[in-house]
Design brief:
189 residues, mainly alpha, 8 helices, rod-shaped
Amino acid sequence: MASKSHPPLMKKHSQTDLISRLKSRKILGVGGEDDDGEVHRSKISQMLGNELKFAVREPIGLRVWILISAVGFTLMALTALVFPNQLYELVFEEELSTTSISVRLYGAALLSLALIMWNGLYTAEKVIIQWTLLSEACYFAVQFLVTCVTLIEIGILPNAAMLLLLSRVLFFVVTIAYYYHLGRKSKKM
């Protein structure tokens, strides 16, 4: 039997072999995109996280808008809790015929929303800021609808109520604009 001669063994350099490197990275779980589209360069950066990933690029004036909202919600809530009859008369230009508990409950709900706004002001997490803005936008939309229905039932259209409706539309548009701008994917560096 003739013995087969084997070619001399050559040492494989895995650092220079592209396919071997890609297989190793795939086994380690690095190099590919994760759920957020982030490409990790090493297992360490994947485990520790990328600081740029968590840095939120905020739209200009976002914190000022949240501050204005928090102060506005707090002041309106305190006004509704302490002076419910006067607040109703200011908006609808007629006296509150029933008990003032409904206006006070409105003030309590506003105070809860104000606490959400204050929390959104001091957080750095994008999701919390987005939920804060979405809560605010929902409030403005619901208040617009409720005020319209109430004005139709009453049959009058006072100037203060018109101003309230216009301000709610404006605040809704600004809040939704910030919400969508914050939700956009930022360009990778």
